[in-house]
Amino acid sequence: QTVVTQEPSFTVSPGGTVTLTCGLSSGSVSTSHYPTWYQQTPGQAPRTLMYSTKTRSSGVPDRFSGSILGNKAALTITGAQADDESDYYCLLFMGRGIYVFGTGTKVTVL
Amino acid sequence: DVQLLESGGGLVQPGGSLRLSCAASGFTFSTSAMSWVRQGPGKGLEWVSAINSDGFSTYYADSVNGRFTISRDNSRNTLYLQLNSLRAEDTALYFCARESSGWYLYDYWGLGTLVTVSS
């Protein structure tokens, strides 16, 4: 089955900018995969940040933005804050009812 | 308010079976596609299975295909996952999640039920 890859970890300074990506083991990510981004604290349910590539979920601050960069989906945090320290997962719709989560990125704000 | 409450997890031996349930409330269950997602200890999220609103279409990850069965009872507002031939690598917190219609995302999640496969 398809593997969706994300960077294992990033460290960003408070106020800094970081871009997380979500790529396919075979092929390119496009808007047809309806990329969704989740933020999660381990053991808790994920929180939706972004869906359909670049639509922010209700209540999500505008320092989070989504896009397609080259052949990957991307989540950018501009002006990182301490409470952005979390795990981030992308989710791609692969068609025929099948979804795949990315491998996840741990973001540290330091 | 939308609520999803999973139950049925527990300790089971390798090769054993378990049935998970997810009781839904606060929305029209019978018109919502639903899924199961799991997370192993210290691991990432893994999509497991999905079912459409009327229960006639089901989908599975390769890792569970042939061993797990998703089903639903719209009269009881309940989603199920039958886990058979369990392996150690199936040990995880199992979440049920509602698919937001037409938007290809999971907008509501339960708190999960823990399945531990060990002898």
Per DSSP, the total helix count of chain A is: 0
Order of helices and strands of chain B: EEEEEEEEEEE
Helix fraction of chain B, binned, reads under 10%
Termini separation of chain B: 40 Å
Radius of gyration of chain B: 13 Å
Mean pLDDT of chain A: 96
Query: Secondary-structure element sequence of chain A?
Result: EEEEEEEEEEE
Distance between the termini of chain A: 36 Å
Helix content of chain A: under 10%
The coarse overall form of chain A would be globular
Oligomer: heterodimer
Shape of chain B: globular
**Biggest β-sheet strands, sense, barrel of chain B:** 7 strands, mixed
Percent of residues in β-strands of chain B: over 45%
> Which band does the percent of strand residues of chain A land in?
over 45%
Quickly count the helices of chain B. Answer: 0
Weakly predicted, low-confidence segments of chain A: none
Provide the structure class of chain B.
Answer: mainly beta
Largest interface: A-B, 26 and 27 residues
Class inferred from helices and paired strands of chain A: mainly beta
Strand element count of chain B: 11
Ordered list of secondary-structure elements with their pairings:
The complex is a heterodimer of chains A (110) and B (119).
Chain A: E1 4-5, E2 9-12, E3 17-24, E4 36-40, E5 47-51, E6 55-56, E7 64-69, E8 72-78, E9 86-95, E10 98-101, E11 105-109
Parallel strand pairs in A: 2-11
Antiparallel strand pairs in A: 1-3, 3-8, 4-5, 4-9, 5-6, 7-8, 9-10, 9-11
Chain B: E1 3-7, E2 10-12, E3 18-25, E4 34-39, E5 45-51, E6 58-60, E7 68-73, E8 78-83, E9 92-100, E10 105-109, E11 113-117
Parallel strand pairs in B: 2-11
Antiparallel strand pairs in B: 1-3, 3-8, 4-5, 4-9, 5-6, 7-8, 9-10, 9-11
